Structures are given as C-alpha cells and as structure tokens.
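Today's session is about reading a structure prediction critically. Students often jump straight to the picture, but the first step is always the sequence itself: look for stretches that repeat, for charged clusters, for runs of hydrophobic residues. Only then move on to the predicted structure, which in these notes is written as discrete structure tokens rather than atom positions. Here is the chain we will use throughout the hour.
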Amino acid sequence: MRDYIIVPAAALVCLPLASHAEGSGVEFSSEIVIELQNDYNFDSDDPTAELNDTFFTIEGAFGLSFGAGSSVNASTVIEPLRDPTGDRFVEDHGLYFEELYYAQEFRGVEFVLGKFNPLFGTAWDVAPGIYGVDFAEDYEITERLGVAVNVPVFGDAHVLQFAVFQADRTILSDSFGFERGQTNISAGGVSNTNGLRSFSASLNGEFGATTYNVGLQHQEAGTGDAKEQQGIAAGLTHTISNVELLGEVIYFEGFDGTTADAFYFTAGASVPIGPVSVSGVYSLRDIDNAPTDNLFTVSGEVEILDNVSASLGYRFGDEGGVDTQTLGTLIVVEF
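Below is the predicted structure for this chain, in token form.
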C-alpha cells in the first residue's frame, strides 16, 4: 500500500470547512461520514475465518451548484479494497470515486449525466444495525456510466427514475492508495459492455409513515457471461408507535451473468429503548445450485455527542454451509 493515501484522506476531512462562494452564484456543499469499525469473528466452522479486522470507511459527498438548476456532484469512498486473510489493523485502504456526474434540473425534472449509482432496491442502505445491509449490498448497482432522469410523479413525495448505463472502465474505476486496478472489458461482468445496453427503472415514494420502492433492471451480459441479468425489487418501511419495520424482496434471472436464478429477502425492525436504538435483521440469500445463506443480526446504537454515534452488534452468518459468529463495534462521525 502506498503512503500517499494519507493525503487524500486528510483533504476529505478538511473539505467541510470550505465556505460558500458569496454573491457569485456558485455554491459548494459537502458532507463527510467517517466510520471506524472492528469485526471480531470469534467462532467459525472455518478456522481461517476466525480473525479480527479494524478498518475505516470514509464517505464524502460534494456538490458544486452554478444556479439555474445546474450542478456537478461527486461521491468518494475510502475503505479496504480486499477481504482480510488474517488479523488486520487499518490496512489495504484505497480511495476511489463512486460517483462523478453533471445534473440539470428543468421544471422539476432532473437529468443526470456521468458516473452514478442507478436506483434498485433500498435495503442495502436502510436496513438497520452494523450488519443489516450485508446481503442486500450484493444487488446495489454502483459505479455505472450513463444517463438518468428523475421525474416527480403523484407529487414531490414520489420519484420515478429511468437510467441507461454501462460499467465504468475509465481511469475512475481504479483507486488511489491500494490499487484495485482499472476495469477492462475482457474482465466481463454484467453491464460491462460497449455502449449503454443496460437499464433500470424504479419508483420510490412515501405515504405518511410508509415508504416504498419498486424497481426492475436489465444488465446486459459481458464477456464470458452466460446470460444477461434481469431483476425485480419491491420493498416497504413503516413506522408504528416508534417501531420502524422494513421488508424487501428481490428476484433475479441470470444472476451475475450466470444461468442461476436468485432470491433475496430482508426483514428488519428498529425500536428506541431509552437512549439506545435496538435493531434486528434477518436476511435470506437463495441462489440456484448453491447452499441457501441466512443472516441474523442484532445491534444497539447510541448517540454519544452531536453527530457522533457508537454501536455494538452481533452477527450470525450461515454462508456457503459455514457458520460464523461476529461481534462488532462501530463509531460514526458526521460532518
């Protein structure tokens, strides 16, 4: 790992201190989230999986607005870019651009051009707890090049997005610090094609205490893939008496460019008990010709200062026929 990863990390932390440009019609905005996490796999059917991993995740969202609905937006991530093979302490971190796009709003409709994350499902973002998103992150669509349009429907509380895209193979697909390597078309993978041959459509909105999402996707087969990937998504969250409930189902044909179908299910609940938010999640991952995976998580989160929270979590994963138990801690600082 190269030492100069320290430079972009420090720059990211300092950016929120930048002031808005007064009277120029140009406005800069930023949001930084710094997470320090420790995962201790204390019991596993696979002895090599019993390890302790401490790492940072630093996410930055930046916008430069020019007035008249025009803006340039970027999101950056610093995180470990390979899985641990043994005990690890703040190693293998790299910085990359997850998004970099131009947006133009016209009469309430937003047009997006560049590198962005097409919408599909939400459990990968909103499932509660330290480990609640683990299975759902499999189907998050990230780092795609293309065009999207966001259209408000039935009022501003509901947004329809349609996107056409391909995988990013530019220099932005590489990283600084620990280098993950620039993507190339010979690597294959769904939507890694010449031309915008993949698409997604999603409708997200809310009715009072209930939010919903429905979506579909088609990701064209890449080099060496057996099939294109087709997927549908449906999810709900609902708050009743301070208890937030979540459920989401996803179904794929040609999952990950193979001939296998896949089904994902996530259910979760979060409830405040005094100063602590206690949550639990169950997730199912069922892929043809593979063992069915199950995930159970429990977490407690408390705000210890303004914009600073701490969490303690437990994870039981039955993955590939291997049971692993994990205890985790997480400290989150938001700017």
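Discussion point for the tutorial: The radius of gyration is 20 Å.
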